[in-house]
Known about the structure:
Blueprint (H helix, E strand, L loop, with lengths): L8 H9 L3 H17 L2 E2 L30 H21 L7 H15 L4 E7 L2 E8 L2 H12 L6 E4 L2 E2 L2
Amino acid sequence: MSRSHLPSQENMNKIYQRKPTIPLLLSCVLVATISACSTSKTATDAPSSTETNGQAPVAENAQPTQADAQSDVRKKQLAADIRAREQRNNIAGDPQKRTEGDLASEVRSKLEANIPDGKLTVEAKNADLTISGVVKTQAQLDKIKPLAMQIKGVANVMVKAVIAP
């Protein structure tokens, strides 16, 4: 190839300056940071953190916010979401390790589908979960830990939830 067919140094500099990798990288980091900072909740009126253990939310016009979570269609959707995350993780890395966001989301989905009207918050740190909030019965409270332990990658579960008065 002759020298006349090669791009000039000036044109090469322009090509390198147009690469969108830095803005793309920064936006990915921003999205990951924002999603990692959020707390997974089973209902909009669930506590915002695990520090508000046992404080039942007061609502003037309380209506069931999770009626659809108990339907068979929704339960199947939640189970499919969990399977999809597990398959993605099996392909991408260690099948037993999950990101904190995935763990919290998968456990929240499991609880949402299996505990009617539970107002629970799920926080994950490494493979340890803290679940707090309010449930209606002792049977629901007893189901929290076994349901959470069904999710791959969960090592320990601390249940701070209480039964609503």
